[in-house]
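Thread amino acids onto this structure.
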């Protein structure tokens, strides 16, 4: 029997890592995508018995030529990809309009939005051809309503990802492909270290944990093909 297969970006830490490990526990084969090969190898090594289901795939998703190589490698090994989860994301400490440089603006847009677009364009065609597949984009509640703490570049990238997710459903629903945008509030991940003032431990303890968002991803993936959850807004209680 063919195992379900997924590509998960941002898999070295945070939400991406939690999603990759959850899917591996469910018996899926997972291509774990991230920029740092060492971090991916450490994650796979630390997963114990799950390691057989995890394939480390170093790749900068903002670079078209690297995503093309990723596509060829993954489809050569898996033959098909049932799910794509775009969880890669970044921000910078100097993020408000008074401090944001054009270089940092580009970096955030390229990682958070262009990277997702490139991965979608890489793996969507074989989903379309098979008339089956799910794409989950981990957005942010800043992709629904701007907030000052996120910064305008991050907000713009996430609003763009919201529109990209909706566009997939508009165009590909007829082709058997579905997309879900997940909009988490504050999550306790390493990305918090890039805030101008990283939150204290007690504040982090009250936030969502990466595993909470991974469960939302699983809901989107595990529903029968006839159903699509288009958006999930999840915040700390």
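Threaded sequence (237 positions):
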């Amino acid at each position: 029997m063919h195992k379900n297969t997924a590509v998960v970006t941002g898999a070295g830490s945070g939400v991406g890592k939690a999603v990759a490990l959850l899917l591996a526990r469910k018996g899926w084969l997972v291509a774990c995508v991230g920029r740092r090969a060492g971090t991916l190898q450490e994650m796979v090594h630390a997963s114990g018995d799950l390691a057989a289901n995890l394939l480390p795939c170093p790749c900068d998703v903002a670079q078209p030529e690297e995503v093309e190589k990723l596509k060829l490698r993954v489809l050569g090994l898996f033959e098909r990809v049932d799910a794509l989860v775009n969880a890669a994301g970044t921000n910078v400490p100097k993020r408000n309009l008074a401090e944001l440089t054009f270089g940092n603006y580009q970096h955030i847009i390229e990682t958070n939005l262009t990277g997702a677009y490139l991965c979608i364009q890489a793996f969507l065609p074989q989903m379309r051809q098979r008339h089956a597949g799910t794409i989950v984009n981990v957005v942010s509640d800043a992709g629904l309503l701007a907030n000052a703490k996120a910064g305008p570049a991050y907000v713009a990238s996430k609003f763009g990802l919201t529109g990209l997710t909706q566009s997939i459903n508009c165009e590909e629903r007829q082709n058997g492909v579905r997309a879900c945008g997940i909009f988490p509030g504050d999550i306790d991940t390493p990305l918090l270290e890039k805030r101008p003032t990283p939150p204290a431990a007690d504040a982090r303890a009250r936030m969502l944990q990466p595993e909470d968002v991974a469960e939302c991803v699983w809901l989107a993936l595990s529903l029968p093909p006839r159903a699509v959850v288009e958006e999930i807004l999840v915040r700390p209680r």
